[in-house]
Each structure stands twice: as C-alpha cells, then as structure tokens.
Amino acid sequence: MDNKLNIPKIRVNAEFQRLMWLNMSWGMITGIIILYSLFIFAKANSEDLVEYIAGVGTFGAFISSIALYLQIERSLRQDVSSNAFDQLRMSSLSPWQMAWARIVVAPLTGWVIFLIGWILLGLTMSHFNHEDNDVFIMWLTMPLYSWALACMILVNALQFKRGNDQWEGSLLQILLLFVVMVMFLTGMLSAAEDLSYLGGGVSNTASPIIASIISVVLCSVAARAAMAERLHLRSSRLTFIVLGLLTPLAAISFVSNYQQALYICAVAYGGMSILSLITQKQTTFSSIGEFVRTRNRKPKWAIASLPAWMILLPLGLICAVLLSADMVWVYIGQFFLLILLVFSINQMKWRYNNITITLLIYLLLRGLWFVIAS
C-alpha cells in the first residue's frame, strides 16, 4: 500500500490569490474595453483609420505605465497601513513569489490597458512600410520593457518607512533624480563628440531583443532582492553590486570595438553610481566602518556591506581615464559635488527629507555654475 501523500498542485500562491481578490474588477476591465471601443468608433469612417488606431494603441501603452506606477504604489500603501507585511514575513512564500504577484496582479488594470493598446498597435504593423523592421522590433520588445518598468516601480515603492535621511521614492525625488541622470548623460555625450571611434556600432535585428531580455532579467533580480530585504530575510547590497557590474551587458550587442565597450561601461557605472549614492543609505564613514567590522568577522562577505557606488564609481572612472580627459572631468564635476552634499546634508536634522534637499541644492548649484560659465 502506498502511503505517500498526494499534495495538490497550487497553480498560484496565496499572495497571488489575495492580491487578485483585492484588485480584480471585471467592471473596470469592461469599462477599459468600452473606452477603447468608443475611441476607435469615433473615427470608424475616417480615411486615416489605421494611423488613428495606431495612435490610440500608443497612447494606451503610455497611459498604462502611469497606471502601473499608481497601482503598485497604492497596493503597497494599503498593505503597510494594514500591517500585512508583518504577517507576510511569517509566511512560507519566497520573496520572488511575493514580488511577481505584486508585479502581475496588483496593477492588473494597468496591464489590461497595456495589453489592449499593444494589440491595437500590433494590428497596424502590416499597413506601414518600415525600414529594417525598427518599429516592429520596438512593438515586439514593448512587453519586456513594460515588465522591467514594473519591476523598477516595485523596487522604488518598497522604500517605505525609511528614515528622513534616506530615499523615500516619492514622485518629487524621482523627477529630481531623473534630471540629475540626464545631466550626467548629457555631459558624457558632450565629452564623446570628438571621439570618432565611438560611432558606428553594431546594428542588427537581434540587438534590441537581446538588450530587452537582459534588462528584464536584471530588473527581475533587483525586484526579488528588494522584496527579500523588505521582509528582513537578507541584505540586498551584494545583489545590487553584482547587478551594477552586469548593467553594461544590456548594451553588449551594440558594441563593435573595445572603445565603445569602455564608453558603455563608463556611462553605465556612472549612472548606477548616482543611483546607488542617492537611493542607498549613506552616512559618513558608516559604510567603511561596517566593511571593517564585517571583514574581521567574515572576510568573504565584507564587500556585501558596501553600497554599490563604492565599487562601481572607481571602475567607471578607470574606463573614463582610458578614453579621454574630458570624460574624467565629467566624472569629477558630477560626483565630487554630489558626494560632498550627500554626506554633509545627511548629518543634519532637517524637517524635510535630506535626499530631496540634497538633490535640490545640487541642481541649483549646477544651474548657477552653468549661468556663470556661459
């Protein structure tokens, strides 16, 4: 007689079912379909109907990104207010099960908006003549980049209940950080204008697809690591260091020579260093002190106590040095002031968030320098 227990297969985990019960609304889904239909039938007899449908699909895909942001933020805010995370820490669910459930089900309405818009846009692909299938490849990779975006929204939204001297993930902070990133990328592009060997990279059909797949993998791992840290299971610092080191792989299929590889590494490591410097906890000498203490106890894991920028910034600077002096000045100009502000302002007791004040002062000083220099 076989005494083996036959455990029933669970297709979805309990967190998935809970979030589906909270966020599944057939009335809302029906309303989205009706709204799309009204937009389409409004110009059913138009001569440029195909272009109009493509525009509606594109607009819907754009709106879906906003819906993803709002719904993931709302879901986490509701769970925080109801102390759901205190109960989820004691469950047997893995961090990845909880992360992908929130990415898929919590913003369910946003995914429906995206799916219908993506299908409408796909129906118009055959009616246009596109050179080298660029538009088709863009349409094909849209779901992958939308998933990567949802993962990054979740990572940012998990920064709840942190101290006033840490990253909160508010919309104002995201906008300020975006401007800082754009200033860094603009400086790197300006420094590369005279470097002719950086142009003419590899261009083929598979390159954008490879880049999107690598981006999805990196962002998914980041979402899983952030969820594990929020549940107090393990620190995410080592994972973010590894992800930062692997970031240039997303553009590896566009590289045709080693100078381009150095440039991509310099830009990627610089951007990730800014992201780490702003979003990860930074206090004067605390990271170095933690590194020394960890090294005395567990030498192999000492590096895991460091924020990612302490590893990535020197690597990016080395890549810049190997390319040109202008890129070195871009690094020095960007990071010297930013590091100085982050470490000095975080020691002060402000009524408002220190990171927000840091970004505002940094942008004001950069704007003042631009006015004086011009």
Automatic annotation (TrEMBL):
Gene Ontology molecular functions: oxidoreductase activity
EC code: 1.14.99.36
Keywords: Membrane, Oxidoreductase, Transmembrane, Transmembrane helix
Transmembrane portions of the chain: 21-40, 52-70, 99-121, 136-158, 170-189, 209-226, 238-255, 261-280, 301-323, 329-345, 352-372
Domain of life: Bacteria
Keyword Oxidoreductase: yes
Tagged with keyword Transmembrane helix: yes
Protein name as catalogued: Beta-carotene 15,15'-monooxygenase
Taxonomic lineage: Bacteria, Pseudomonadati, Pseudomonadota, Betaproteobacteria, Neisseriales
